[in-house]
What does this fold into?
Amino acid sequence: LSRGVGDVYKRQARFVCALSISYLDRNIICVIGKVEGMIAHKPKGTNGFGYDPIFIPNNKKKTFGQMKSSEKYKIDHRFQAFKKLKKFF
It folds into this structure.
């Protein structure tokens, strides 16, 4: 959490995934996937792991913990990074 104006806490958050492929000590490609969102006031949902029950992606009303995996994986940070990486194959 970051401190906002007048001691009001902002609830902004993001998940980040960095992927790099290297061959024979030579970097080939590095990519980053991100999903922006906010921290829920209390955990909701039992799907996923870690912070999934408290992370609400932007423009969504459910936490990652409330989403089916098929819904979450279409927007999560890992998917974004692998999608970028796929362009190089």
